[in-house]
Amino acid sequence: MHFQSTSLSDATLIELQPFGDQRGMFARTYCRDKFMAAGLPTEWVQQNMSTSANRGTIRGMHFQRAPHREGKLIRCVRGTILDVIIDLRADSPSYLQHEGFELSDGNKHQLFVPPGFAHGFQTLTDDVEVTYLVTERYTPLAEGGVRYNDPQFAIDWPLPVSTISDKDAAWPLFDSLHPLAL
Ligand SMILES: Cc1cn([C@H]2C[C@H](O)[C@@H](COP(=O)(O)OP(=O)(O)O[C@H]3O[C@@H](C)C(=O)[C@@H](O)[C@H]3O)O2)c(=O)[nH]c1=O
Fold first, then answer.
1. Which residue minimizes the CA distance to atom 16 of ligand 1?
2. Exposure winner among 5, 11, 56, 174, fewest CB in 10 A?
3. Measured between alpha carbons, how far is 113 from 42 in angstroms, rounded to an integer?
4. Fold of 43-181
């Protein structure tokens, strides 16, 4: 696996190293030693998956407030997504910057999302499945979010929004958040 830095401090794109043969392909998706050497987390407490039926669906932009901030390792195992992360760490050189990454069953890239980032994605195909590891347990009282179309970030979503949860459509704008809400 190859670890590539991104425009956002500590966020890492991980390319798998595939071994192909007549049966198909093998690759490690997680390797404790390599993650440790790359300075990435090695303790994951949940593995989650979601499916989304329609192209254009948005989930996000989500985070958990301190002290429950989560690191996430995202992979799209069916279809294609644009995965977007926003650095919300006030002490970071990339504070308030965002970047999008195409993750698909074709490229098999994984994205490490550091604690303190907001995370979300838009499906670019129908029938998408995403799986991710997280470093903290789900803590509903610590759930937070910022609106996917917050003008502060002006994320360039590639498709019109076809489907979004009521919760995600109603997250506040970043401007209105108290610093303790992060
Ligand atoms: C995230 C989560 C949700 N749930 C429940 C709550 C709710 O009833 C149902 C669906 O939850 P949500 O609507 O929050 O699911 P979803 O919008 O897919 O939430 C996910 O979105 C992506 C973008 C992320 O970054 C994830 O960390 C997570 O926040 O599942 C759990 O039981 N455990 C969990 O870890």
1. 59
2. 5
3. 13
4. Jelly Rolls (2.60.120)
Tokens of 130: 């995403």
91 CB-near residues (< 8 Å, 6+ apart): none
pLDDT, tens digit (0-9, with 9 covering 90-100), for 36-45: 999 999 999 9
Mean pLDDT computed over every residue of the chain? 97
Does residue 69's CB lie within 6 angstroms of at least one atom of ligand 1? no
Cα 41 to middle of ligand 1, angstroms: 21
Residue 172 to residue 83: CA distance in whole angstroms? 20
| Domain ranges (residues) in the chain | 43-181
Ligand 1 centroid from CA 15, angstroms: 25
Q: How far is the CA of 78 from the centre of ligand 1 (A)?
A: 18
DSSP per position, 62-96: EEE-TTS---EEEEEEESEEEEEEEE--TTSTTTT
Pick from 27, 64, 47, 61: nearest CA to 130: 47
Q: Is the ipTM of this complex over 0.90?
A: yes
Distances 72 to 11, 45, 51, 66, 78 between C-alpha atoms, Å: 10, 10, 17, 15, 18
pLDDT, mean of residues 130-141: 98
Q: Residue type at 146?
A: V
Cα gap 83→123, rounded to integer Å: 9
